[in-house]
């Protein structure tokens, strides 16, 4: 059975291009197109599509407001289609935090509007079509206000401070489809003085800096994009953001400080950056003083790396099926015996900070 897709975009040219990119996919059918949020809402009700592609930079109803209505009234997998502007990147990152399952860039890296994209959009749609919303909606914690930081931070820090495991030297997290929303929940449970934390989130690297800024608003700790050789400090969270680069960890010359290392490399487990590459380096360098967390995502990247961390003595956690957007990466990790703990997303922070949580 074909995956039924609704395209919502105010540009007739862009609607035609997106349709062209999907036309030759035998397992995908574009069942309708809409030029604005009002038309899109009506067609979602009428056509009940499996996946919606949503241009959030449309006139009329704000794209974020429309996305929130979709998630509240008729939860449907949404892929955000973004332009090349900085403002567009920021809005896209906030949309991912609100529940959009992935993002797609309208233009190629050279800024051109190509007729074909090598199947990227089709692959994102196939991933999105596997999303299940029923259990996730029931278990999703109430969203914090998008632009409020201090109040939420002080409450979470007070709740979490007593349970922090002081022997933890580093926390490493891997996530993919639906990961930005999950990261917001997990990092929101970290105290302001959390152990240094490194993250690989599968996403177009163009959006990663904006995602870091969006997560920073929701978290007590400071979230930032990882640099080429970044000292990993308590109270800081580092997100892999450089194009075509793996994020790994190493020790400085005197062996006293952990560094985040961004270096170009070939795909590992199909990805650059790769969760497996990060976790393998953490297993080797940090060993039993680390915590590894594998969140929602398609495929198996991170599963073997999490196993390497557990074998090195680290405390390892996988997100449970009920709260995953896509139970792919955690499923493989669990099947390998890589996870000490399997937990819903809203309890992962507690398990990371205290083995007995």
From TrEMBL:
MF terms (GO), sorted A to Z: methyltransferase activity; protein-glutamate methylesterase activity
SMART domains to which the protein is assigned, alphabetical: REC
Start and end residues of each CheB-type methylesterase domain: 164-357
HAMAP family named among the record's database cross-references: CheB_chemtxs (MF_00099)
PTM characteristics: Phosphorylated by CheA. Phosphorylation of the N-terminal regulatory domain activates the methylesterase activity.
Family of the protein in this entry: Belongs to the CheB family.
Active site: 176, 202, 301
Chief location bin: cytoplasm
Keywords: Chemotaxis, Cytoplasm, Hydrolase, Methyltransferase, Phosphoprotein, Transferase
Organism: Novosphingobium clariflavum
EC number: 3.1.1.61, 3.5.1.44
Protein name: Protein-glutamate methylesterase/protein-glutamine glutaminase
């Amino acid at each position: 059975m074909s995956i039924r897709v609704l395209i919502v975009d105010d540009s007739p040219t862009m609607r035609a291009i997106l349709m062209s990119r999907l036309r030759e996919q035998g397992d995908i059918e574009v069942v309708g197109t809409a030029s604005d949020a009002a038309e899109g809402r009506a067609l979602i009700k009428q056509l009940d599509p499996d996946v919606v592609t949503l241009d959030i930079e449309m006139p009329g109803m704000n794209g974020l407001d429309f996305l929130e209505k979709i998630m509240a009234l008729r939860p449907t997998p949404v892929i955000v289609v973004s332009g090349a502007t900085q403002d567009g990147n920021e809005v896209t990152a906030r949309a991912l935090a609100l529940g959009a399952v992935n993002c797609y860039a309208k233009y190629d890296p050279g800024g051109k509007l190509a007729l074909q994209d090598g199947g990227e959009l089709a692959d994102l749609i196939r991933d999105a079509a596997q999303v299940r919303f029923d259990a996730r909606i029931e278990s999703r914690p109430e969203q914090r206000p998008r632009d409020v930081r201090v109040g939420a931070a002080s409450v979470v820090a007070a709740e979490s401070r007593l349970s922090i495991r002081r022997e933890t030297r580093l926390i490493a997290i891997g996530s993919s489809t639906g990961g930005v929303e999950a990261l917001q929940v997990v990092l929101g449970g970290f105290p302001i003085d959390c152990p240094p934390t490194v993250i690989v989130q599968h996403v177009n690297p163009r959006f990663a800096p904006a995602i870091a800024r969006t997560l920073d608003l929701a978290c007590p700790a400071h979230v930032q994009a990882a640099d080429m050789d970044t000292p990993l400090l308590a109270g800081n969270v580092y997100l892999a953001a450089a194009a075509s680069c793996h994020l790994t960890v190493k020790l400085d010359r005197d062996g006293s400080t952990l560094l985040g290392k961004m270096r170009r490399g070939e795909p590992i487990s199909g990805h650059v950056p790769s969760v497996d590459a990060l976790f393998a380096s953490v297993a080797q360098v940090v060993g039993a003083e680390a915590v590894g967390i594998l969140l929602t995502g398609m495929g198996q990247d991170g599963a073997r790396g999490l196993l390497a961390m557990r074998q090195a003595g680290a405390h390892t956690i996988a997100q449970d099926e009920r709260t995953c957007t896509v139970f792919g990466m955690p499923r493989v990790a669990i099947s390998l015996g890589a996870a000490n703990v399997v937990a819903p997303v809203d309890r992962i922070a507690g398990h990371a900070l205290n083995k007995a949580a």
